[in-house]
Each structure stands twice: as C-alpha cells, then as structure tokens.
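Handout, section 4.2: multi-component inputs.
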Amino acid sequence: MNSVEHSAKPYWNPYLSGFGLGLVLLASFVIMGRGLGASGAFTTAVATAVHQVAPTHAENNAFYAEYLGDGSRSPLKDWLVFEVLGVFVGGFLSGVLANRLKLTVEKGPRIGKPWRLIFAFIGGALMGIGAKIALGCTSGQALTGGSLLNVGSWAFMMCVFGGAYALAYFFRKQWI
Amino acid sequence: MNAPFYKFALFGDEASFILAFVIGIGFGFFLERAGFGNARKLAAQFYLRDLSVLKVMFTAIVTAMTGLYLLSRMGFVDLSLVYLVPTFLVPQIVGGLLLGFGFVIGGYCPGTSCVSAVTGRIDGMVYITGMIAGLVGFAEVYPRLQGFVNMTPMGQITLARLFNLPYGLLVFATVLMAVGAFMAGEWAEKKFGGKEPDPKGSLIGRPWRLTSVRVLALGLIAAGFVASVAGDPYRGSHATIDTKSLELRVARGADSIQPADLASWIIQGRNDFTLVDLRPEKDFAAYHIPTAQNLPLASLTPDFAAHNQKIVLCSDDGIQAAKAWFLLEAQGFRSVYSLNGGMRAWQDTVLFPRKSSGADTAASEKQAQVAKYFGGAQQAEGATASTVAAPVLPVVTMPAAPAVTNTISSKPQARKKKEGC
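Output:
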C-alpha cells in the first residue's frame, strides 16, 4: 500500500466528473424511469438484518415492514441494493486505476484520529436519521430530485447547504 | 421510442438488477474520480476553499435536467413516468438541515461514504457504521414520529407546477444560475483558498481560450436556451388516438368500474388508484366518495398524474366522466376508468341500495354494511321495477362525507419509499 501513495493521480476536473455523473443519472432516468440513490439500500440492509435477528420485532415495526416487502422474495432483491453494490465496485475500480487505495483517515492537521472517527460516527448517524425524515439523501433527493425540478428536493438541497454552512465554523479544526 | 424502458416493460426485474449494478458502477466511478472519497476535499466546500461539491453536483444536475428535457420534448422519454419523490415540505426541510449537520460533522454523505470506505478510508467505514446505527435508532422511534414525517404533504409536484411557470424556462434559469454559481465559486476559491484558477479547467481566468470546460458550459447554456423556447416536455400536447383500441376497451367494458367494486376497493384501503371527482365544488363539499379529489375537467393536463397511474373518474350521471375519460385516454394515460352510472349509481347501489326480497341474506347483510360504512343506509323492500324506472329519485339528503380516519387504512398520501433514495 505504501508504494502506491506516491503516485496517486490527481482528481479529475470537477466539471467533467459532474458531466459524467450527470450522464449516468440521465441513463438511469431513460432506462429505469428513476434516479440514483444510496441511503435506501442501507435501510433495506438494516431492515433485513434486524429481521434475521428478531423477526417479530421487525415485522411489528412500521418502518422496517415497509422495507421488508410482502415476504414473497428476499428484500435484498431490490434495485437500490444492486445499485449501491455497483457504487462500491465503481469507486474501487476508479481508486485502483488512480492509485488511490490507501488505508488512512481523512482529517485536517489540527485534530486527532480518535476525535475524527467519533465525529465520523456522529455525522453518519445524523445522516441516517435525516435521510429517512427527508425521504432521501444527497443522491436520491438533491441530485435526482434536483434535476427533475422536484419542489421538496430543492427545499431539501438548500437546507443541506444551509445546515452545513451554519455549523462549519464550529468544526473548522477538524478540516482546516 | 418508448422510454423509460423499464416502465414500458422492455425488460423485467432480473435484468433491472444487472442494470442497477452497472449504473451504480458509473455512479461510484465518477464520485471517486471527482475526489469524493476524501472527506477533507468534500468538507472544504463549507470553508469556500474548494467548491468541488457545488461544481460536481450542479454540473450533474444541469446535465441530467437538460438532457431529460430534450429527450422528453423530442418524444423519446415520457417524463410523467420518471418517478418523482412526493414532497413533504416540513420534514424535508428538517431532514435537509440534519443532513447538512451530518455532512460537516462526518465529512461524507451516504453515497460518497461508500466510495471512501472502499478505497480504504477508515473514517468512511466508521461513518457507514454510524449511519447504520442512526437507521436502527430511527426505526425504534419511528412509530412516534409518523405524524411528523407525514406533515405538509404536497404530492408529486415540480417547481414548474408550483409556480405555474413553463418547465423549459425553469430549466434555462437553473442552467444560468448554476454557471453563475460556478464562476462565483471559482472567485471564492481564489480569495479564500488562495487557489489560482487552472486555466484549462475553469470558467474564469485568462486566457480566454475555448477549453473543454468552457465548451461544456456554453453547450449547457445553449441547451437551456432551447428548453426555454421549445415548450412543454410532457407528452400529450399532440394527442394521438388509437380508435381501435378505444373501441375494444369500451366493448370489453374495461373503460368503467361498477360502484360496488369501487366501494370494496376503498374499504380494502387500496391506494393504487386516484379517484377524481369532476362535479362542481359545491356538490363535492356536500358529499363525496372517501379519498376522492375534486378536480375540474380543465385541470386534467397531461402531467396531472403519472401515465400508468390507475385513475377512476366520477361525475353526476357519468357524462362529464366520459368526456374526461376520452381526454385522458387521448393524452396517453393507460388505465382510466369511469364510475359506471356516476354518482347517481353510487347513491342508488352503494349508499341507499334497495333490499330485494330474492337476494340471499348474506349478500343483503353485506350490502347493508357497505352502505353504513359510507354513511348511507339500506332501503326497505318494495321498490319495484316500475318505481325505479320512474324519473323520481328517492328524496334523500346526501349524508356528510365520512371522515377518512381509522376505519379506512389507506392514508391519502402514503409515503412511498421503495422508489426513492
């Protein structure tokens, strides 16, 4: 792993990456009639796991029940689950091709690893909750709904940026 | 051509999973290429030092938006079949703020965390663990939050419909806004991040050469301009009518639904259909079938519902409904039904059915229960064919619409998550 970090290639130009991402999203609209997503796949996975451990608990919970389906087939046979598996593979391929695979923690110089990881956990938990309240995350709402001129998605997107900028000052040591 | 292909059943579920995987690979690849596996690069957005998040996100949005507009306008894609997540304004504002907090605290969003974890970032892996914990916690409190998350439902609605502006004009405005934000962003990067714009990869800065990035921006602006003058992207402004298939549907009776069937759908709490009441507002206020929406004929535009949505139309005697049925069929809606006999038949057969002496008791009992459910009552025996044929309608005041609460399990606006994120 150490030998590759010296030759990590620079990131692509953001406009060109965005254009590529936009074409992928457009392909999803044309082929499937739906956009991209991420958090939904994790919810399905969580619901399935809880159902394995405590079947009655999961079935009695309105939230899990919605992701478990009618039981006629595995809830993991879901479009978003396969899409997110693809995201992992695509990210890995791109990382390999650019020599960017590296076991590391991304953080600013003024914070220790333990705190960075604690914040990563808290941030992840907030995202999980927020995505379920808002019916989507940055992929399913902002990106997908944004390009469909969806009312809720635009309100959501403004609030994501608003929320992040509002707290940015307090977390500056973590990043800069 | 008929797109979205999946909605036109050009392939099945199994094939859709393979396509999902391939589309996902593309998604993950471009996220990683942009540097979105790196929390520091993502978070720099919020300190105005590196605005890649803004640039990537809005370039993607504008690309997909203009592309979809043009393909729809050319008749290649039926835009009404592209799934739109329903709007619940207040929960989406609150959820958005929480996501924003999570973004600056955790450094990722769900999609980028996958790319980060798989390229070896431990913070990305921990972030995913946190997200799973958040989901488990949310599930436990969900029953108590149901009222909140279903607040302020606005249905599936675009900005174009909300503000009553032409769709194409909004597309153009969004493109211009995005390009303006990119230029302001590059200026901010220079000021706050001390980053000189790379002459090859930025919009501002000299020399004024036509680089690929500038060509892309000009191309998107041009496409946006075309959108602003090209008209409505939804299908249906030029109706084509297949008279043979209409004939067949009418002959088979597949164009209408019996009042008793509609009643049982509602009692079962089915929410896979939209019930449209075409009568004047006054009559609707006096009585309407539970779950019905009051829409005048003129509001049945091609984009008022998805074209594969099941729609049941009702009016007083069925004539208005028949007109609306024809209009919607011509606009390309695929499963439109009119309530057979209109509200009069509903009144006579569901609300105030006549008990016939010949019928078996179980059926009669059920008839009475259904009538009671909808706020009516079974009528006593004795109505003969001659009195029914007489044009004297039973003098009944319509009962007040029963409240659609606990007895009917369907919520008028069910939160449909499966197709969302």
